[in-house]
Amino acid sequence: MSPYQHGEVFVTDDGAEADLDLGHYERFTSTRMTRANNFTTGRIYDAVISKERRGEYLGATIQVIPHITDEIKARVIDVASRADVAIVEVGGTVGDIESLPFLEAVRQLRHEAGPQNAISVHVTLVPNIAAAGELKTKPTQHSVKELLGLGIQPEILICRTEKQLSRSIKEKIAHFCNVPVGAVISAPDVSVIYELPIALHAEKIDEQITERLNIWSRPPDLGAWHRTVEIMKNPPRGIATIALVGKYVHLRDSYKSLHEALSHGGLANECKIEVKYLDSETIDASNVERELAGVDGVLVPGGFGGRGAEGKIQAIRHARENGIPFFGICLGMQMAVVEFARHVCGVAGANSTEFDPNAGDPVIDLMPDQRGVKAKGGTMRLGAYRCALVPGSLAAEMYGSSEVSERHRHRYEFNNAYKERLEQSGMVMSGLSPELGLVEMIELPKHVHFVGCQFHPEFKSRPHAAHPLFTRFVRASLSRRDARSRTETRTDVSESATSKLVH
């Protein structure tokens, strides 16, 4: 899945790959998603064709209705049966050819479940025409008309808009879309995404949903959301600047969970995170110091392929040699191993066989049982794997545990043939896979904060429960910022005093 087409590829515990929307749902609901929580047109058609080949339809002619729609409904009902309330999103735009079978399935589900067990909520756009200073309701009217033509009457309209809808605009939408005025909900742009639950609560959408579904509920406690927004808007400890050195920086949604996890780490430390995106393809020995000037921490994320790898290595070396807090994730950890092997252990030919299949010293390599697998997906470690933490290590201290479970999405591994050599030079392999004996975490104890992990901790971070690896990385970055500020202050005072003496 190309990040330039899908944005970030989100991974669940059971190894499903999905787009970044599923990550947002996990962060907002604190519900663990699985492969059952996301299904595409391809998966639906594949399942129906497989059933037909097995003879489950007894030779009947396979049609979109009922076979495709029944398969969609069965999957929705399966997930809904394990929850109190299921929120089902049909992606795309009303009128898309791809969405039609799903919308028909939704229509049938609404009818079969009954009025107090299912409601239709339509998210629509009310654009602002800047030249005229006017909000236009026509797109919403046409969208609802299209839905009505498909047999679906939206009961609540969530209107995406740049600014709050006036009463007169809401009345106009309600009149033409056949809904009560109170069911027209403003969803204005917010400066902080975690402000959205507060904004929607102010529009009383929660009251309407619980009333229509006949659910008794206590009033919501939005205290945690209010605290989150307050810290992000008025951070007591100011701003920490983190350099994110990657090769997909031209589409920042490629690193959506990373960006959010950094924000969560900032929340835990009562500061705001400013992410400085740096293209690793443009970094080399001649400009790395300039590019990283003024940053409080360096994060090198995951990725695939050799493009920009040397730039990442230069950034890691600069962070290691200059005491800048460093955090390497997946490929970022692998590049930290390559950098350490080259410049500390003297292994000049250190590299990953992902970039150079004939590397003289493949410190990063495929496992032996992976080499015969030709399909790329067949060599991936996907989903949750256990990681045993070395007692007394920084990793064990950060987690406060001896064993954790984290999500993976990668193909190449640390080559254990080089483990002893790197350990002799000061690198600690602080996390190991109990089943596979693979290196999951590395650290440099003599550095202010130098940590790498083979997994993706950003997938499990939440706004009200920041991941410990991000919390500690941000804390170390804040400490560097404060130390640098004190040094600059002393320098300014000294230069001022010297200037007065000369005068």
Short overview:
By secondary structure, this protein is of the alpha/beta class.
Word description of this protein:
The chain has a 9-stranded mixed β-sheet with strand order 9-8-10-11-19-18-17-14-15, sandwiched between helices. It folds into 3 domains: 39-118, no CATH class; 120-212, P-loop containing nucleotide triphosphate hydrolases (Rossmann fold, 3-Layer(aba) Sandwich), CATH 3.40.50; 238-485, Class I glutamine amidotransferase (GATase) domain (Rossmann fold, 3-Layer(aba) Sandwich). The chain starts with a helix and ends with a helix. With 503 residues, it is an alpha/beta fold. It has 17 helices and 19 strands. The chain has helices at 3-6, 20-29, 41-53, 64-80, 100-113, 138-149, 167-177, 196-202, 205-212, 223-233, 256-268, 288-291, 309-321, 331-343, 394-399, 419-424, 468-502, and strands spanning 10-11, 17-18, 121-125, 128-129, 134-135, 156-161, 184-188, 239-246, 272-279, 297-300, 326-329, 350-352, 361-365, 381-389, 403-410, 413-414, 428-432, 439-443, 450-453. It is globular and about 75 Å long. The model has no long low-confidence stretch (mean pLDDT 92). Keywords: ATP-binding, Glutamine amidotransferase, Ligase, Magnesium, Metal-binding, Nucleotide-binding, Pyrimidine biosynthesis. It catalyses: UTP + L-glutamine + ATP + H2O = CTP + L-glutamate + ADP + phosphate + 2 H(+). Its EC number is 6.3.4.2. Residues 481-503 are annotated as: Disordered. Residues 1-215 form the CTP synthase N-terminal domain.
